[in-house]
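User: I would dearly like some help making sense of a protein record. I have put the entry right below:
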Amino acid sequence: MANMYNWNDLPREFVRKGIERAGFRGDNVILVLNWIEPNIKVNPHRHSFEQLAICIQGRFNYHVANEVVEMTPGSMLRVPPDTEHYVEPLGDEVALNLDIFSPIREDYKHLVEFQASEFDAPSNPS
């Protein structure tokens, strides 16, 4: 059975002032949608896995190592593993940034607890 969800109805996690996120998963991939308000305090960070980032709404500078690229809706980029990166919103509207991680980040599994029954049930062989 296919379960349909809408980002606007999913439970959001408060990350810090100006940033909220929600998640959606498949068997081996997790998508995380970030709502990023203007004038946030930026948070340079790095992790041991690659990240694909897509701008859905708004504009922001995406800092990756020593490079800065302006992203607008439809823009995509790859953040290599162990590379410092962060988002800096531009303008006065909320930006939406979709991040994709495969395999699923263990530290983000709590974002997709609403889907647990889809993955806990044994599969039916056809």
